[in-house]
Amino acid sequence: MRPLLLFAVAATAFAQSRRPSLIDELRILPSEHPAIDYWNARPNDAVAQLQQRLESGETKLEHDPQFGYLPAVLRALAVPVSSQALVFSKTSFQAVRIFPRVPRAIYHNDTISAGYVRGSEVMELASLDPKLGVVFYTLSQVKSAVPQFEARTTECLSCHAGPATAGIPGLFVRSVRPDRSGTPDRAPGFLTDHRSPLDERWGGWYVSGRNGSAKHLGNAIYERSGAENSLLGSARLNLDTLEPYVTSIDYLTGTSDIVSLMTLEHQTRMTNLIVRLNYEARMAPAGPLPAAVTNAAEELLRYMLFTDEAPLTAPVSGNKEYREAFESMGRKDKRGRSLHQLDLKTRLLRYPCSYMVDSEAFAEIPAAALGYVKGRLAEILDGKDQSPEFAAIAPADRKAIREILGDLGVLGSALKSSR
What we know:
Elements: H1 46-56, H2 70-76, E1 85-87, E2 104-108, E3 112-116, E4 122-129, E5 133-140, E6 149-151, H3 153-160, E7 174-175, E8 190-191, E9 220-222, E10 228-230, H4 258-283, H5 291-304, H6 320-328, H7 360-363, H8 367-381, H9 388-391, H10 395-408, H11 412-416
Antiparallel strand pairs: 1-2, 2-3, 3-4, 4-5, 5-6, 7-8, 9-10
Helix pairs in contact: 4-5, 5-8
């Protein structure tokens, strides 16, 4: 194995105490590099493909008198309505329209996030392109014969290509302490993913669902004194619905599901690390893999196997519709097991391996780098690598993950030859 270079992310308002990153996340990779050509290459993500179907007449989008194209877009892109997550902090380019009682709705699947703001002229979309990374679009809510998804790359990348996204066009979830208008306080604040304890998560978000005795920052605004005020009456936690404070009259559903928020957080960083490795590998010179590539691969392996996952201190449960929708997304092995199966008792997933390894973006990582990841994953799952970061993976989980990936053909010969 190659020696690893450690980079600690510089302290910011969003830094957290955790294992130092193996990549220099302050280094923004050049998306204009000829091997990437982010600004000129033709995207081939799900939104771009939908646009092609619209222009050919193969697909039409029905316009809803209240929600515009939102319901039709979600159906066309297989994004479940039950994934709705509501954020009321002013952390969007549509900040002037967002308030605690008028939150922005986000809907997502494994590769697409769609944003809706009441009264706005546009929808926002972020879609993972297998080669380019995350591509950003807006869609006019004005009824049109052929709706047009417009690229909004320049404006969006001012926030979505920096240390918060591992230096590539990517995604992130912020947790802040908003005031009565939804404006975030300067500190404290966090970038959140599955490594974050619940007590750092969801500041500025509505959260429905059950989390037992565990605490989080959602459903509240904060005074200058630091005093916390619930937006949901006398209760703030462990509520199955947000009504009557946020209703299904104004939104597609009256929930902001806790499990949906957890899967969204997991896949933001997983998306960024896949894209980071893709970029590093494509920009690397011919020959042996340089440290920048192997470090990116090792950081991806640590995250995809949940080595630093913050354990749940109490069981979590959300709405049944989202759980069913999420678990139905995953391909199953011969025994009916899937990487999309949820645990929610002590951790997010039943099998601690990211479902995004079974994605087109993962498969599009250049061959040499992908081969490195496959080989290392085989070593880890076979128990040959017992280094501290992987030693905590239970033998039964290693075996199950290995069998699932083998049946799905995700890792091919690298995994089979290790048995």
